[in-house]
């Protein structure tokens, strides 16, 4: 029995989907615990490319159970579209194989309308959200006026809650944001229909997890986004609206912290981020372009080009501390082939002072200068290498530097997008 949490250590897009898919072969239950369809995990299966926004990637494995926890916010139209798309390609998405927490909050049409209208109104000061209503949905959840998926299974309860909320939302949309009001009947009828389809999937996920744990199941908790997008600990306000750190798995799925055995952090061999916000190691030169094109750094959900830069060791150390990481996975190591020298940010400079930790002041964070340590690069193509000892010496030294700098062992190394382009030094479910 083992319970393993997988989290991103940077600003998301670290390649968590591939690693979750890899480890799913050894897990019995896979749980998504936070975020919404602003996240996208790209999976290659049977020669097809799938981008999953809500359903855990364990869905491709016949014997696995996939759970969507209460910490996730769900756009039911997106979820049903995802179910239909998988089903049409021969992937089973039956109730029982996929289960959804009755306590998960729903993204409503007014959440998306508000999200888009706010960004348009903000102009140059916009945060750079995906416009999918994630933030406004979490706002309503915290404001105790949200609508949960269990609510739409009770027609009278849903009517009362929607009626009360929509009047306020339409006033805000029309009078402040200058957008169009939304129809009560259209929302009510469409969500009832979607609720009917989703009803067989809805259950108490926390209870299901307790049953699984008592039966000795191996449980994999799958996070979205990355540590620096955490609402409390990230580069606020340029963050997402949920807790992306490992602790979020406990309250986002309904398990106690003492049930967790390992926390694995996924770290790209360099650093990327999408949208606005500070990025100390960002490169706007040919090296940055090399990283973007060689690494295929375009958002799986939005298609937006990602900002690219050298590995930020300060950000990584912060992730180690905030998540209590017990191991690291380094992804896209192959993208660094041909670059020499390589640089890793080991501290920052601000107004002549060295900073070894991330400042809480966003204005200070936006004006940091990275302090780099240079390491020799390698020229060899490493994408077909299967064993750590066969990697170029400078490549092994790069990994060793990361281990020594963070104090955390590197247990998995990804050298390409396919599942078989992975060097597994230690499997958390087999140790």
Automatic annotation (TrEMBL):
How would you summarize the oligomeric state and partners of this protein?
Homodimer.
What name does this protein carry? Adenylosuccinate synthetase
Q: Which residues participate directly in catalysis?
A: 13 (proton acceptor), 41 (proton donor), 141
The enzyme class is ligase
User: What domain of life does the native source organism fall in?
Assistant: Bacteria
SUPFAM superfamilies named among the record's database cross-references = P-loop containing nucleoside triphosphate hydrolases
Protein task: Plays an important role in the de novo pathway of purine nucleotide biosynthesis. Catalyzes the first committed step in the biosynthesis of AMP from IMP.
A Pfam family: Adenylsucc_synt
- Organism equals Thermodesulfatator indicus (strain DSM 15286 / JCM 11887 / CIR29812)
- Ligase as a keyword of this entry, yes or no, is yes
Cofactor note, please?
Binds 1 Mg(2+) ion per subunit.
Pathway field of the UniProt record reads: Purine metabolism; AMP biosynthesis via de novo pathway; AMP from IMP: step 1/2
InterPro entries according to UniProt? Adenylosuccin_syn_GTP-bd, Adenylosuccin_syn_Lys_AS, Adenylosuccinate_synth_dom1, Adenylosuccinate_synth_dom2, Adenylosuccinate_synth_dom3, Adenylosuccinate_synthetase, P-loop_NTPase
Q: What cofactors are annotated for this protein?
A: Mg(2+)
Q: Where does GTP bind?
A: 12-18, 40-42, 306, 332-334, 414-416
Enumerate the UniProt keywords alphabetically.
Cytoplasm, GTP-binding, Ligase, Magnesium, Metal-binding, Nucleotide-binding, Purine biosynthesis
The Gene Ontology biological process annotation of the record reads: 'de novo' AMP biosynthetic process; IMP metabolic process
């Amino acid at each position: 029995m083992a319970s393993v949490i997988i989290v991103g250590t940077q600003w998301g897009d670290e390649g968590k989907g591939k690693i979750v898919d890899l480890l799913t072969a050894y897990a019995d239950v896979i749980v998504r615990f936070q975020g919404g369809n602003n996240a996208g995990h790209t999976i290659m299966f049977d020669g097809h490319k799938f981008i999953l926004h809500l359903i855990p990637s364990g869905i491709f494995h016949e014997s696995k159970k996939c759970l969507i926890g209460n910490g996730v916010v769900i756009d039911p139209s997106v979820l049903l579209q995802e179910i239909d798309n998988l089903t049409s390609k021969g992937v089973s998405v039956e109730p029982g194989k996929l289960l959804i927490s009755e306590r998960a909050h729903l993204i409503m049409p007014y959440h998306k309308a508000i999200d888009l209208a706010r960004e348009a109104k903000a102009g140059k000061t916009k945060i750079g959200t995906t416009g999918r209503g994630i933030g406004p949905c979490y706002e309503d959840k915290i404001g105790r006026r949200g609508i949960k998926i269990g609510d739409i299974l009770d027609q009278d309860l849903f009517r009362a809650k929607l009626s009360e909320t929509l009047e306020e939302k339409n006033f805000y949309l029309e009078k402040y944001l200058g957008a169009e009001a939304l129809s009560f009947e259209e929302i009510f009828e469409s969500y009832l229909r979607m609720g009917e389809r989703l009803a067989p999937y809805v259950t108490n996920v926390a209870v299901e997890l307790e049953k699984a744990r008592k039966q000795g199941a191996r449980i994999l908790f799958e996070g979205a986004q990355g540590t620096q997008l955490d609402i409390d600990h990230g580069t606020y306000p340029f963050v997402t609206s949920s807790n992306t750190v490992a602790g979020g798995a406990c309250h986002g799925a309904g398990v106690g912290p003492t049930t967790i055995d390992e926390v694995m952090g996924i770290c790209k061999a360099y650093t990327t981020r999408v949208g606005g916000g500070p990025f100390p190691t960002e490169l706007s030169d040919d090296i940055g372009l090399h990283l973007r094109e060689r690494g295929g750094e375009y958002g799986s959900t939005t298609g937006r080009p990602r900002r690219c830069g050298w590995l930020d060791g300060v950000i990584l150390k912060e992730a180690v501390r905030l998540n209590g990481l017990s191991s690291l996975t380094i992804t896209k190591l192959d993208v660094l082939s041909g670059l020499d020298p390589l640089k890793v940010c080991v501290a920052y400079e601000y107004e002549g002072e060295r900073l070894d930790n991330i400042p809480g002041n966003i204005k200070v964070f936006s004006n940091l200068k990275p302090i780099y340590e240079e390491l020799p690069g390698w020229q060899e193509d490493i994408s077909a290498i299967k064993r750590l000892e066969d990697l170029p010496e400078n490549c092994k030294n790069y990994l060793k530097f990361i281990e020594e700098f963070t104090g955390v062992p590197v247990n998995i190394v990804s050298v390409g997008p396919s599942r078989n382009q992975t060097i597994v030094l230690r499997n958390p479910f087999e140790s």
